[in-house]
UniProtKB/TrEMBL annotation:
Name this polypeptide is given: Flavodoxin family protein
InterPro entries assigned: Flavoprotein-like_sf (IPR029039), FMN_Rdtase-like_dom (IPR005025)
NADPH-dependent FMN reductase-like domain span: 32-104
Taxonomic lineage from the root: Bacteria, Bacillati, Actinomycetota, Actinomycetes, Mycobacteriales
Domain of life: Bacteria
């Protein structure tokens, strides 16, 4: 799913957008402050987002709170069941940050299908296209 989102975000038709990738455990406040938009990806573990993504939010939340308001984000999430809690938690955090849901979330249960991967590609492309200068 990550690779499909990345291919969409880096499509050659999208110009003037630099895509920077960071593993959730290495995200620092400066990464979030310097970005114009966000593509968030996580597995749903036990009905919640990954501990790594939660750690990233915990690390950057207060530094990003007022500065990043209004920035677009997209979410792709994979789980086997119980993804609702992860989506609900991420929606609550991004709402608190004032980020704008710029595309429908891609939530996949079980093995991702070709259609799921196409939705991931569209998600990446949609968010990146909104940031074109």
């Amino acid at each position: 799913m990550f690779e499909a989102v990345l291919r969409g975000a880096t499509d050659p038709e999208i110009e003037g957008v630099e895509v920077v990738r960071r593993p959730a455990l290495t995200v620092a406040p400066v990464d979030v402050l310097e970005a114009d938009g966000y593509l968030l990806g996580t597995p749903a573990n036990l009905g919640y987002m990954s501990g790594a993504l939660k750690h990233a939010f915990d690390t950057v939340y207060y530094q990003a709170l007022d500065t990043t308001r209004g920035r677009p984000f997209g979410l792709y999430l994979h789980g086997n069941e119980g993804t609702e809690g992860a989506v609900r938690a991420i929606d609550a955090i991004t709402t608190g940050l004032g980020w704008v849901k710029a595309a429908e979330h891609v939530v996949v249960s079980g093995k991702p299908s070709k259609a799921d991967l196409e939705q991931c590609w569209e998600l990446g492309g949609t968010i990146a296209a909104q940031l074109m200068v």
